[in-house]
Amino acid sequence: MFCYQCQETAKGTGCTIAGVCGKKDDVANMQDLLIYVTRGISVYANLARKNDIVPENADKFVFDALFTTITNANFDKEAIVAKIKKAFTVREEAKNLLISRGVELPAKLHSSATWVGQEDEFERKSQLVGVLSIENEDIRSLKELLTYGLKGMAAYAEHAFNLGYTDYSVFEFMHRGLAATTEDKSVDELVGLVLECGKFGVSVMALLDKANTESYGSPEITSVNIGVRNNPAILISGHDLKDMEALLEQTKGTGVDVYTHSEMLPAHYYPAFKKYEHFYGNYGNAWWKQKEEFETFNGPILFTTNCIVPPSKNAGYADRIYTTGASGLPGAKHINPDANGKKDFSEIIEHAKKCSAPTEIETGAIVGGFAHNQVLALADKVVDAVKSGVIKKFFVMAGCDGRMKDRDYYTEFADQLPKDTVILTAGCAKYRYNKLELGDIGGIPRVLDAGQCNDSYSLAVIALKLKEVFELNDINELPIAYNIAWYEQKAVIVLLALLSLGVKNIHLGPTLPAFLSPNVANVLVENFGIAGISEVEKDIAMFMA
Ligand code: FSO
Ligand code: SF4
Hints:
The chain is α/β, with parallel strands linked by helices. The protein has 18 helices and 15 strands.
């Protein structure tokens, strides 16, 4: 195996024996093979789109396959092998669709569009088609950067799709981008595609924002309980709000409470979910603390997406984990939708009834819900505070959390920021500082949480609005600094989206991606002022200067 798609990659260069995330060698190889055959599907789907043909099955399969291979989403080899087999069928259908519409196929097709094999050939083939199969390190770097951006885009496209929202231009780009990774492209052409990926990153986040807010209302300021009460309960993790709604509906009147975990916390901010009395609070912290926190939760846990940490064999909670959607874990029951798309969570609910109530690990509340609508409702107050100098600077500290010690930097950074600054956050990065007593500025909390990582879109909307209010020509003239923490591929699409909106001088940490070759990193530094982080005091002084 070779995988370097996330921030925690081994030795900062690549996981080669097993993933730091817990992904085994054989699972990593099957993920590579799945991506390979999926690229082949996009070769046909791209041709279809160019000829105004809608390859619906290919659209759905491609975003789901990309999402499945995102860090910490799916560790289930059997499920991935099944998807590879399905990919052959979807690819064949896409090809036949073109033929039936009279589209001439190119004489020479990339092997990903033609290779078929039996299951016993998968392992050998997978070793020939992984990341290192591209020799030139800059081309490899750009093609992987593009692929990771597409994986993040796919995750958001799938959540929107689940709520009945699609943007065909996003699918068109997904296929065009993925097909391009099978073609001979120059560095310049690939840089162009990477930047275009950011543009469609904005589109997909806007689409998901529309899907979420039209379905469940606009997030509003909410105080979320972090304690527990004495009912059996289900913990729901991941990002999918459609699953959230289905679980709340099905647990109504059963005596089983529902708590959010990690990135599901922002579900509490949506008006539509506030009506459920049994939707009690948020349990625990960011994803990487789940080994301890799932033990004490006592009830079943439903993963709707990443981030899963595979439990050790003797973990007391291993048999309490359920997965759905693109997520998967060997040994965990996977809940599939029925023919009408309905998911039946009754087994999880019955399981919960046999469990004790969660053990309290903390008490109190955290406040969030500062997505664009809510912040813009407070715009006058915010603008006055900036004009009068009461607020000196905003710090966008969105992104992800992770298990490495060096992420203490973000807690210290938040803690040591001058008291006349406000943190804008989204994603699980917030758990590094959302329980600190950072106070408020004239009633405006010093940590404004917009929601999940995709709600970084809200932060961009807020910035664009402020630019308008202050009548500035350039978004970079705003008193906003960007100190973003990344972990996996959704953070990659968020970063590319910010670049496409013209945001410069983003600091990215705790380390720069291993998949950026020195030359590609240079392109980002020279054109966008991307930089890393150093020490807290030094960085604060630099940002405030
Ligand atoms: Fe975090 Fe995981 Fe939301 Fe990611 S829970 S790390 S960027 O999946 O998606 O922020
Ligand atoms: Fe390693 Fe990250 Fe890949 Fe997991 S996802 S194998 S930790 S690089």
